[in-house]
Design goal:
Blueprint: H1 2-5, H2 15-33, H3 38-56, H4 62-84, H5 92-105, H6 110-118
Protein name: CBCO1 protein
InterPro entries: CLAMP
Pfam families: CLAMP
Amino acid sequence: KMELFLNLTQLKTSSKGAILLDYYTAGFWWAKEMNFSLIQLSGFMDLLNFALENLSRKHMTLGDNLKELERAMAEIGETESEERGDLNLFSIEQAKAIIDYLVTSLFKHYKTYEYLFYGRREEPVLSSE
């Protein structure tokens, strides 16, 4: 279902698509294990996408991406709070856990993801076998 939602095609021959599917699926299951509400789950997935988009489309450095993530987390809390009357979208503990997750899943491997998105490489021809 995640494959269809993300519109990822040719996963059998595209390592980039398979890696992105794994990244989002792992994030989704981590958030489910954290018992996030639907609103929190949506906000978390937005943060995953936001950080990855900053890297892949905007070619942000690690430092710039971290600064943008900090701003985005503050905005999500403010926007959602105003609409729903909540104090914050994420508790302090949840926000710390999210940051830890992003550091472990994306930021520690930033150079690898940079290579994935804009490293020059030959496309190997893979057979269906």
